[in-house]
Amino acid sequence: MSVDRAEAVEEAGEGAEPEALVAATTLHYYAVAPGVRLNVRSGPGTSYSLVRTLAEGASVPIYCQTPGTSVAGYYGTSNIWDNIGNGEFVSDAYVHTGSDGYVASRCG
Predict the structure, then answer these.
(1) Could you give the percent of the chain with pLDDT greater than 70?
(2) What angle (nearest 5°) sits at the alpha carbon of residue 33, between those of residues 2 and 76?
(3) Which InterPro entries match (predicted)?
(4) What is the pLDDT of residues 30-77, one digit of tens each?
(5) Which of 10, 3, 2 is nearest to 84 (CA)?
(6) Mapped to the 3 state alphabet, what secondary structure does 60-101 carry?
(7) Confidence of residue 108 (pLDDT cuts 50, 70, 90)
(8) How many whole angstroms separate alpha carbon 43 and alpha carbon 107?
């Protein structure tokens, strides 16, 4: 089954600004549903283009969240989409956040 999902983002490296280093160390990663290869989309919905597919066992950062297409997934049905990188979104219905609601700020 192919679903929406993302790979871990690189941490700030040498020469990074101090704020980037702080953000990289405080960023929380959330596990993707077990046994799921999650599709990463270019926007908050299934009609957006596929950017990549995450491997089973991946964890993703959530930079912000936004409403979009409603998806029935491993953790229930949700219209929340998680921004996991620049132009990369996954359905929150496949991410174990421990909540049925928003766990990050809304995308601006």
Answers:
(1) 77
(2) 90
(3) SH3-like_bac-type
(4) 999 999 999 999 999 999 999 999 999 999 999 999 999 999 999 999
(5) 10
(6) EECCEEEEEEEEEECCEEEEEEEEEECCEEEEHHHECCCCCC
(7) confident
(8) 11
Token output for 12: 């700030």
Q: How far apart are the first and last CA of the chain?
A: 31
Give the model's confidence band at 26: pLDDT under 50 very low, under 70 low, under 90 confident, else very high.
confident
pLDDT bracket for residue 13 (50, 70, 90):
very low
**Count of positions (residues) in the chain:** 108
Q: Which amino acid is at 54?
A: L
- Tokens coding 49: 């283009």
> Which pairs from 91-94 meet CB under 8 Å and 24+ separation?
91/3, 91/4, 91/38, 91/46, 92/65, 94/3, 94/4, 94/5, 94/32, 94/33, 94/36, 94/38
Which neighbouring-strand residues pair with 65? 82, 106
